[in-house]
Amino acid sequence: MKHLLQIICCVVFCSLSFSAKAQDVEPRAVPNGFVTIEAKNLPGSDTTIVSGKYQLDSKGTVQMPYLSGTISLSGKTGRQIQNALTEAYKKEKIYTSPVFSVVVDSIEHQGVGVRYVHVTGAVGSKRNLPYRPELTLIEALIECGDITDFGSRYILVTRNGVTKQYDYFSTRDRGVKLFPGDVIFVKERGFTEGREKTLLP
Length: 201
Known about the structure:
Residues 48-104 form the Polysaccharide export protein N-terminal domain. By secondary structure, this protein is of the alpha+beta class.
């Protein structure tokens, strides 16, 4: 009987140790790292707009579509990020019952030293573009398949937590220089929003 109890205790101890180790090795988001987010239970085409692969900035934060500010993800596991996203979208009353599935890239695949510009929203192909000097807004959009027929002419660019709006049809705005970590978001075009036939100054 005593021997049996020793075996049971050993099995329980090993199980707890394995569980603890599994939690320790669960990938956590890191500054400049990547997370892949799949959104569900969102209205219209928002599922496609919000879902995608995002790169955290040097502070470990990321700008998500429609949120008023950046959200800190550094140090969080996939499940913790899911909860953080759900709470953030509910808090700003953007969605009532969003569902997120998050995969954190392991450190080995984070692409350390590689800098990106993240393009998302109503574009042909949402991508993380490797940054290069002199990369402009229009170049980034074209490399991602340009804005779709449903994309707005007003492009949002977030840099270091500050978001500015640019006009797709403005020659000056098209030439805006981008920087590593910039997030370009093309929202959906409103029913009353028109399209210019020629470029504006």
